[in-house]
Amino acid sequence: MKRMHLVGLLRKEFLQIVRDPSSIAIALVMPIVLLIVIGYGVSLDARGVTFGVVDESRSVASAGFFDAFATTPYFKPTDFTNTRDAEAALMRGDIQGFAVLRSDFSRNLEKPGHAVHVAVVVNGVDANNARIVTGYAQGAVAVWARGRQTDRAMTAAATVTLESRYWFNPEIRSTNFIVPGLIALIMTMIGALLTALVVAREWERGTMEAMMVSPASMAEIILGKLAAYFVLGMGSLAVSMGLAIFLFQVPFRGSVLALVGISAVFLVVALAMGLLISTVARNQFVAAQLAFLVTFMPALILSGLLFDIESTPVWVRVITFIFPARYYVSCLQTLFLAGTVHEILLPNVLILIAFAAVLLTAAIARTRRSLE
Amino acid sequence: MAPAAPPPAVVLDAVTKRFGKGPQATIALDHVSAEIRPGEITGLVGPDGAGKTTLLRLIAGLLTPDDGKITVLGHDSANAVTAVQQDIGYMPQRFGLYEDLTVAENLRLYADMHGLDEAARQERFHTLLAFTALGPFVERLAGKLSGGMKQKLGLACALLPRPRLLLLDEPSAGVDPASRRELWRIVRTMAGEGVAVMWSTAYLDEAERCDSFLLFDNGRLLASGSPAEFSQRVENRTFLLAVPSGSKHSVQRRAAADPAVADAIIQGERIRLVLKAGAALPDGPALGGSGAPQPVRPRFEDAFVSLLQGRTPERAEARTARPPGEPSAAAPVDGAAIEARDLTRDFGAFRAVDDVTFTVSPGEVFGLLGPNGAGKSTTFRMLCGLLEPSSGSARVAGVDLGTARAAARERIGYMSQRFSLYGELSVRDNLDFFSGVYGLDRARRRQRIEWALESFELGPVARQTSGSLPLGFKQRLALSCALLHEPKVLFLDEPTSGVDPLMRREFWARIGALAERRVTVLVTSHFMDEAEYCDRLAIVYGGRMIALGSPDDLKRRFVSDALPDPTLEDAFVGLIEAQGTQVAS
After folding, report:
1. How many CB pairs under 8 A join A and B?
2. Calpha distance B341→B509 (Å, rounded)
3. What ipTM did this prediction achieve?
4. Domains in chain A, please, with CATH?
5. Are B94 and A210 a contacting pair at CB < 8 A?
């Protein structure tokens, strides 16, 4: 390694980054756009669910039931007088579900020891959404029932109530869960996509060949490239972190040092993947396609970023192990929501380091032979 | 050999290089042995895919040979690449420049790579910038330089470490003739200082200027030695035959079919003849010429073609076979076939084409000649309706492209340099697709496809995927696709760049036959060879048309005592120089 070679190569890389607006766009503008679009657009929470209450009893009690739905932020209830109208509204998609209070609702409530039945009908087309709506509806009913008990100052005879606590994400905001994962997606983009593109461009323009013939060694050429895009990647990590914490209000409970260290390792993995892609694809178009297919899509779908890996079929779970993004996503979610939990971080980091070593060696070996 | 001769810079000993494995492997170089001497310019000559780039990469240490041995500056290239890398200057195709970096930054990068210290660096920068006249442009981005300036900068970068071996991969492709001459001057000086230069080129006239050459075809070394000696192989066998005006295509065809003639090509208003060894000179008037053929100095290309024909007689036959006849003659066009009036095109603040005016008559073969970036492609695109002019008008086959583009397109056939075929489709599928695009009805479609398969000899390969065909077949297929709808005007974009001279002859024989059937042909090219086939030329430089006339007209303008028989390139350089002084005054 010669200092003059490295300094020269680094200067070249930074000049190119500064002069080429597309690099800056991918590194700094893309993270912002991705975070805002996916962070705001993809929410797995249900809020303001349009919900019907069919009130056949028309009593004080049933009005109280309706209010229970109206006072939570999760529902926007509509009053119906008969089931047929509610069904029609569900068919039209005006409401996502409805509850039915029979005409004997308030009467039965007065009867001691009598179980009161409330029917809930939910549009089940989107199964996930249906489950969430059902859960919320049950919650709303439970809150209402509890309220009635206190109101009527029922005897202190022990009534057992369930107090649930959600750890790590008490509000169960899916943003808290998705935004850390998005950082993994962004780091994959910068590392793999951008690197694959710029190296492919060097092949296209013949500059790679010229560098390889010069006395600079292959390791120096690759190191220069990695170092430049490493800095760019860490820069967009900072941007993403800022957005996550200040715009999306995602809590960060871990140590910043651990975050920077782990991200650095993952970035090297992503850069090595980009280099490997560029040894196969000699033009920017193919490089971009490959990078999307091999790094971006798995990071989006199979990393636990959007979908919980534990709830996928076994064979899908097995596949996820070969994509480095899953280990990084797991680290990020832990660092943001739980804290610096060494038992989780350490094995993930070790696996990422192994990935970095293997991929980097392969990338250097292949780049050297890639004129064949 | 003289006893004091310096050791060769490069020794190739039965070098073989294959790409791929097993039966699919292609042999890029096949047992090539040669020596490259210091102080000489050695030309690597041959068509695309002949193995020139592979050989340069092997010598540069970018590839390793499968068989044989390469010794570079005394070291075995297989195990001592790093030892000699300091002494090799290498300029890859497209010059290996970083376009986002300025001239100074590019030079500085290469200086860093070669570990030049501050003093050496200043001295080299100074020398090379003066040498290449790039001094005033050091702050300009390399991407914003003209083709000729890029070429000089690429060369300056390769020359920075004072190499003992200079490897140049097609350094002059697409560059204007004036810059090409300057490049030769610089490289010649370097050779004078004892540098061994290897210069690969597809231009056969460049081979003539080298001290020695290696001629490749399909990975094999066909010939080597000094170009003068090579040309002498056809000494006393080369002639020029004057022909009555308007008959050059038919005379050329008759001459090519003559058993005594190895090669017959159109050169301006005359036919150039190369006789077979030992053949008697045919009678000029009998071939349709006016007067007896006049002896002329042999060229490198004459010897090359004669050599290729000796090796592949069946290809010679294909070339002289009667070119395709059109079943229905194109209806005559009234007036001009192509009319460009005050054509101008701006891209932002940059004027790519500036006020170009010319007309082309039916049946004329018209050439737009100029270096890369001169504006010929932009002019070409405006004439075939791919690009709208900023001002001015274009009419093709009597139809205004501004108002009736669709109607004009029906009368236009277009063949691009890259052939624009669907590589995954078979030959017949390609023909079928293009006939559909041009809206031929079912009966006519069948008839035209049969015509194409028969007259372009594509029948035997009709079911093969077109991507797997040799270059010559692809070229024929591309031409036949462009002719399916019997266009009145045919646009050809650098149709024969990179193909071997036999293929070029075959192609132009077909174009000549079309021209005789009153099809108008517009060709763009930066190959002077191609220009010789044209009836008239427009020379485009810096976005403006700087000359218009027949090849002979243009050459005649530059006849002088020093240059009794100027080439088209001489004329081109003269025109550019005249242009320069005009701008200066």
Report:
1. 82
2. 31
3. 0.74
4. 2-43+173-371 (no CATH), 49-154 (3.40.1710.10)
5. no
